[in-house]
Specification:
Shape of chain A: rod-shaped
Number of strands of chain A: 7
Shape of chain B: globular
Structural class of chain B: alpha/beta
Strand order of the largest sheet of chain A: 2-4-5-7-6
Number of strands of chain B: 5
CATH superfamily of one domain in chain A: Histidine kinase-like ATPase, C-terminal domain
Helix content of chain A: 55-70%
CATH architecture of chain B: 3-Layer(aba) Sandwich
Strand order of the largest sheet of chain B: 2-1-3-4-5
Strand content of chain A: 5-15%
Order of helices and strands of chain B: EHEHEHEHEH
CATH superfamily of chain B: Response regulator
Number of helices of chain A: 6
Oligomer: heterodimer
CATH topology of chain B: Rossmann fold
Number of helices of chain B: 5
């Protein structure tokens, strides 16, 4: 604006100068004309000089008035305007800087946006790939479902067929197992019975050779031996029957201490075995089947004696914990290998070279029939401890 | 004419069943044999090392060793012993023990006459092994 005003002033300058000059010349000429008559005759150079001085006297103030003053004013305004312009320029620079920062920020945003866009595109690719996979999986699933449906359609027939085959296989297995068990039992029973039978036939042969008059003592010894062998065979038969036909215990209040002592009397220890008994003094009543408990103890005691062919010690004791009555048979025999302990209560399993393998199976069967159990602790070379645990509230 | 001297026939009986070994021992004693009865393979090996037995009657089932293994060990100590295997029931076939040098494999209950025939047959081959009657 100021620049425009200065420009306008400068453009009007020749016209104003012309006007001021003409007016000044006009006034100077009038004044010269008016005073010429009163002045002495001057030489022309003096007139020109006076005329020029007068003209200058009129022109310069007029020039100042009309030309320099507005120019100065305009210059001041121009200066102010320049300052304003500079200020504006500073502001503009700041604004420019801000704008640069904003631009940088925008560029950063743009870069981030590009990165995000790239990632998005990548994700989009993955998503598309997943979609493809998903479609493929869906197709496979559909196929699998169809297969399953087809399989289901024939499943019942297949199941029936398999069940029939399984039943046949099971029956065959049961038959085989039964035959195997029967075979195993037959072999062990044959083995067990043939020893006393050998004793009997040997005794019969020996008696035939005897002279009744001379060998009376030997013949008497052999009749006793025959009776023992018959009892043994009878015991084997009883074991078999007892095991095959589980009897329900006929429980009655029984003096258990007395029952143990009576059983021990029936099974006297061999000469090389020392028997010690630690039984609670006084009568201890338990509701049990005395015959069955006696049979359990008899089997445990016989096993203990057989485990000590070279002698040893057997301790029979009782322990009463209130809820449980325990009868313990601890021997110092050969012991049972650790790996065989889990199977010794199974029927037809024996760790002895001779035996039907029914003794401990019957022990467990009868103990469980009383609501009790039988447990064993054993160490090879040191001995075995069998514990019959019976509930006190039978 | 010089009198013929014959050594008494010695029989070792190995069976863990006391009745079987006692009755067999009594029978052979009555028939004039020297008999020794033991219940384990270890005792049997000790006896074989101590005495030159002519016969050994071995049960297949022994507490410490199988009779067939004992047969092999006895024959390593004394090759001339006539071993007769006896068993109540065994899954081992008679051929096994016969291959290992047993003279016979008999099943319990024993027929004593059959056993005595084997003794007589073997002693006829060995003039030193005769019952002392």
């Amino acid at each position: 604006m100021i620049v425009m005003q200065i420009g306008k002033t400068i453009r009007q300058l020749p016209f104003k100068l012309l006007v001021v000059t003409l007016i000044s010349i006009f006034i100077a000429e009038i004044f010269v004309m008016a005073v010429m008559d009163y002045l002495p005759v001057w030489p022309p150079w003096a007139v020109y000089l006076f005329d020029s001085a007068l003209l200058s006297f009129l022109v310069f103030p007029a020039l100042y008035l009309f030309l320099f003053s507005p120019l100065t004013r305009h210059m001041g305004e121009s200066r102010n305007a320049t300052e304003v312009l500079l200020q504006k320029a500073v502001e503009l620079e700041r604004a420019n800087q801000d704008l640069s920062a904003v631009q940088k920020s925008l560029e950063e945003k743009v870069r981030q946006f590009k990165e995000t866009d790239a990632k998005l595109k990548e994700s989009q690719k993955v998503t598309l790939s997943l979609l493809d996979d998903s479609n493929e999986a869906r197709e496979q699933l559909t196929k699998a479902k169809e297969e399953l449906q087809r399989f289901n359609d024939t499943l019942e027939d297949k199941v029936a067929e398999k069940m029939e085959a399984l039943k046949a296989a099971q029956e065959k297995l049961v038959r085989t197992a039964r035959l195997s068990a029967v075979g195993q039992l037959a072999s062990s029973v044959a083995h067990e019975i043939r020893n006393p039978l050998t004793g009997l036939t040997n005794a019969a042969y020996f008696l035939e050779q005897c002279d009744p008059k001379e060998d009376c003592a030997e013949m008497k010894k052999y009749t006793g031996l025959i009776q023992r062998q018959v009892s043994l065979i009878n015991q084997i038969a009883s074991d078999l029957l007892n095991f095959a036909k589980a009897r329900t215990p006929k429980k009655e209040p029984t003096d258990i201490s007395k029952l143990i002592r009576e059983t021990l009397e029936k099974f006297p220890p061999p000469q090389n075995v020392r028997l010690s008994v630690d039984i609670h003094k006084g009568a201890h009543q338990l509701k049990v089947d005395p015959l069955q408990i006696s049979q359990i103890l008899g089997n445990l005691i016989t096993n203990a004696y057989q485990a000590m062919p070279k002698g040893g010690a057997l301790n029979v004791r009782t322990e009463n914990s209130g809820k449980e009555f325990k009868i313990v048979c601890a021997d110092t025999g050969c012991g049972i290998p650790k790996e065989r302990i889990p199977e010794i209560f199974e029927p037809l399993v024996t760790t002895k070279p001779k035996g039907t393998g029914l003794g401990l199976a019957i022990v467990r069967q009868l103990a469980e029939g009383h609501g009790g159990k039988v447990e064993v602790e054993s160490q090879v070379g040191k001995g075995s401890k069998f514990m019959l645990k019976l509930p006190t509230e039978g | 004419m010089p009198q013929e001297t014959r050594e008494i026939t010695k029989v070792l009986i190995v069976d863990d069943d006391e009745v079987v070994r006692t009755t067999l021992g009594d029978i052979f004693k009555k028939r004039g044999y020297y008999t020794k009865t033991v219940g384990t393979a270890a005792e049997a090996l000790e006896e074989v090392k101590k005495n030159p037995y002519h016969f050994a009657v071995l049960d297949i089932h022994l507490p410490d060793k199988s009779g067939t293994d004992l047969l092999e060990e006895i024959r390593k100590v004394n090759f001339k012993i006539n071993c007769i295997m006896i068993t109540g029931y065994s899954e081992e076939s008679p051929e096994d023990s016969l291959e290992k040098g047993a003279k016979a494999h008999l099943t319990k209950p024993l027929k004593i006459e059959e056993l005595i025939k084997i003794f007589q047959r073997e002693t006829s081959h060995d003039p030193d092994a005769r019952p002392h009657l």
